[in-house]
Write a structure and sequence with these properties.
Keywords: Aminoacyl-tRNA synthetase, ATP-binding, Ligase, Nucleotide-binding, Protein biosynthesis. By secondary structure, this protein is mainly alpha-helical. It contains 15 helices and five strands. The chain folds into two domains: 5-188 and 298-327, HUPs (Rossmann fold, 3-Layer(aba) Sandwich), CATH 3.40.50; 211-292, Tyrosyl-Transfer RNA Synthetase (Orthogonal Bundle). It binds tryptophan.
Length: 332
Amino acid sequence: MTDKILTGDRPTGQLHLGHYVGSLRARVELQNQHPQTILIADMQGLTDNGHNPAKVAENILNVLADYLAVGIDPQRTTLCLQSGLPALAELTQFYANLVTVSRLERNPTVKAEIASKEFGASIPAGFLTYPISQAADITAFRATLVPVGDDQLPMIEQTNEVVRKVNNVAGQELLVECRALIGKASRLPGVDGKAKMSKSLGNALVLGASEKDISKAVKKMYTDPGHLRIEDPGKVEGNVVFTYLDAFHPDEALVAGLKEHYQRGGLGDGQVKKVLEECLQELLAPIRERRERFIADKGELMRILQAGTQAAREETGVVLQDLKKAFGLPIL
Ligand code: TRP
């Protein structure tokens, strides 16, 4: 049986290299093998930006342009907008009755985000419950495979709990369980060496970065603080330049050679950074050019989003109707 793929991102900023490594790259390949839908999760973006909807609204087309720029093809992948799909909100409301508040509070991703966002006692209800809405996203498309970064694993687990509960109540296999597809280097550190690349931490390199931005980011990139002289042996573990070479350089043998030389001593940080910079410039130049062309034609972007959302509205509406029928509710 072929997989059905659903994935998505919150449009709260431009997408960056962390997204690329975590799942964008995989999605470009997967669209040739399976039916795939990508959801621009604006409703989820609002769960911690409720008082600043402009931040979400203005990034919808940015994210769409990022998708198209990396090679997502709207002929192969359905690109749709979460707020344009009322069935998702309705399914969320049904599922919310089968999920406890304490289970949500225990979700490790939500827990970590609550701590890092410093909500204190003012956690928005929509934020605490967003795993339920993500379960609605996934199940409404009958997705079986969800390509995401590894921070999303708890969401998949909670989605499958919802699936089992709903099926139990419905007395039939109404919804399907899904599994995560985790990228090769699913968590890219920021250019400063911090555990995760993230726009809010200010350590991200966006896909539309200029040549100069790329050059600057590589120059200030964290290496081995103990590697003071070129002739000293250096460490590759925790050395962001090597982590990035592993994630992006197409020539694995060359990277292995550089590592060996660096560890032995005699290879300067500057030389390794030069190899990385060339590789990133080469990767991002065509993406930047395509991105600029798409962003310059907002009308075309809107047409793509409109067509994908229309198709998705029909698809998700069917699952909602099936659930209502299975629950014995009249279809009016
Ligand atoms: N939670 C995801 C993120 O933080 C975005 C998302 C929303 C998503 N709905 C989804 C991912 C459904 C996969 C499947 O980026």
